[in-house]
Design a protein that fits this description.
The chain is α+β, with helices and mostly antiparallel strands. The chain folds into two domains: 153 residues, Phosphorylase Kinase, domain 1 (2-Layer Sandwich); 225 residues, Transferase(Phosphotransferase) domain 1 (Transferase(Phosphotransferase), domain 1). It contains 13 helices and 14 strands. Strand 5 and strand 6 form a beta hairpin. The N and C termini lie far apart (46 Å). The chain binds adenosine-5'-diphosphate and magnesium ion (MG). Adenosine-5'-diphosphate binds next to strand 5, strand 6 and strand 7. One of its GO terms (molecular function) is protein serine/threonine kinase activity. This is Protein kinase domain-containing protein. Keywords: ATP-binding, Kinase, Nucleotide-binding, Transferase.
């Protein structure tokens, strides 16, 4: 893999810790041209729709209440054999590409020895804005990630965040290059190649224990997000969940005869907090500038898709809408169909998404409907999470209990 790269602008930050980042309150917003020209594959692209209702107001008054972790090392984009940047993915706001940290040269003077040869260069995933109105969205996401990454337990549930790279207005994260959406598509492909099997046709596509394990982990993650971190995600869907492989230690001196292979050998991590809301904030101002910055119809709770909510401008995600979106994500994981609803046109599918409380009924009409049988374990775990009235939807603590039953 080639690593010849185009240096990105140098960071001017000085005080930094060994990971190359520092905690600061934000100062002013830099509005630079996005550092990369979008290139590469588009097939993995997700399709959030930046909402016309979102505003791009991130007044410094509201931002200064918050702490921002800054990434202070220099970054070089990694490139392939054709000198093109290696892209991990892209979404409504951004392009995420592979980059390497380089020892900072800005502080080197004639009297200072060159950067220590022992300084390690690391690989990161860098999320850079794709459009002008993405700058405040990413800045606000960096503040949310700073807070999440300082909440105990984050390492189990959230993509590791290394800081906001001021000069490029980009977020620096650990690279976790497998999105749940890709995993679901790969499972569906493998399944098509294997051909139909009566033995497994009533099971989730990755097998019952893998699906249950995935569900337990994600539902626990959502409980942590709402109850420990106090954050509403706002755009939960398979494209915004990343899978970190679990390395199974094979220590031959401690062989456990009963050790079973892991049902689902990944830790699912929440990513993309560009639509997130702070549950503790009572400020309607803050809610209005971050809420519904992007939404993806099939995974969005029906109450947020009604014409009334969309036109009133009073449309904001809630813990209950996150619960719905996670349930829709888990239904897609079970059937292997990222479109969720059967139907020949987007309009037809949107109409069904607006009736999202009937998601299991609609799914059963689709090609993989047998995988969510009536009264089966998928239905029992999903039904209380898709209730029409958001107030009637299961709370994450009860949902965790149901998932572990
Ligand atoms: N830390 C990461 N490591 C590897 N790939 C990532 C990482 N973060 C995001 N991606 C990929 O990039 C895509 C877009 O990132 P996302 O944060 O969802 O941006 P947007 O807010 O524009 O939707 C994701 O769907 C995923 O495929
Ligand atoms: Mg996204």
């Amino acid at each position: 893999m080639a690593t010849k790269s185009t240096p990105m602008p140098l960071s001017l930050q000085t005080g930094h810790d060994t990971k190359g980042n520092s905690l600061q309150t934000p100062t002013s917003e830099s509005h630079l041209t996005p550092p990369v020209t979008p290139i590469g594959k588009s097939s993995g692209a997700e399709h959030s729709i930046p909402s016309p209702l979102s505003t791009t107001d991130t007044s410094s008054a509201s931002l200064n209440r918050n702490i921002l972790l800054r990434f202070t090392e220099d970054l070089e984009a990694c490139t392939d054999g054709s000198n093109r940047r290696i892209e991990y993915g892209r979404g409504a706001w951004s392009i995420v590409y592979k980059a390497r940290s380089t020892p900072s040269t800005i502080l080197t003077t004639i009297n200072t020895p060159p950067s220590s040869p022992t300084a390690k260069s690391r690989v990161y995933a860098v999320k850079a804005p794709l459009r002008k109105d993405a700058y405040p969205v990413l800045h606000s996401e960096a503040i949310t990630l700073t807070r999440l990454n300082s909440t105990p337990g984050f390492e189990n549930y959230v993509v590791p965040f290394h800081g906001y790279h001021t000069d490029t207005s980009a977020l620096v994260m650990s690279a976790v290059p497998l999105a749940l959406s890709t995993f679901i598509e790969d499972q569906a492909d493998m399944n098509r190649k294997r051909g139909p099997s009566t033995a497994t046709m009533f099971d989730p596509i990755q097998g019952p224990s893998a699906w249950r394990d995935l569900s337990r982990k994600l539902i626990s993650g959502l409980q942590w997000l709402h109850k420990s971190a106090g954050i509403i995600h706002g755009d939960i869907k398979p494209h915004n969940l990343l899978l970190r492989p679990i390395v199974q230690v094979t220590d031959t001196t401690h062989l456990d005869a009963n050790a079973e292979p892991l049902a689902f050998p990944y830790e699912p991590l929440f990513a993309d907090f560009s639509s997130a809301l702070d549950l503790q904030s009572n400020s309607s101002d803050e809610k209005s500038h971050t809420s519904m910055s992007a939404f993806t119809p099939p995974f969005t709770a029906p109450e947020l898709l009604s014409l009334a909510s969309l036109t009133s401008g009073d449309v904001a995600p809630t813990p209950a809408s996150d619960v719905f979106s996670l349930a829709a994500t888990l239904v897609a994981a079970a059937t292997g169909d990222l479109l969720l609803y059967p139907g020949s046109s987007n309009m037809q599918r949107l109409a069904m998404a607006r009736e999202g409380h009937r998601i299991l009924e609609f799914t059963r009409c689709g090609a993989n409907g047998a995988r969510v049988p009536r009264n089966g374990f998928v239905e029992r775990l999903m039904q209380p999470a898709v209730a029409k009235d958001p107030a009637q939807r299961i709370d994450t603590s009860e949902w965790v209990e149901l998932a572990s039953a």
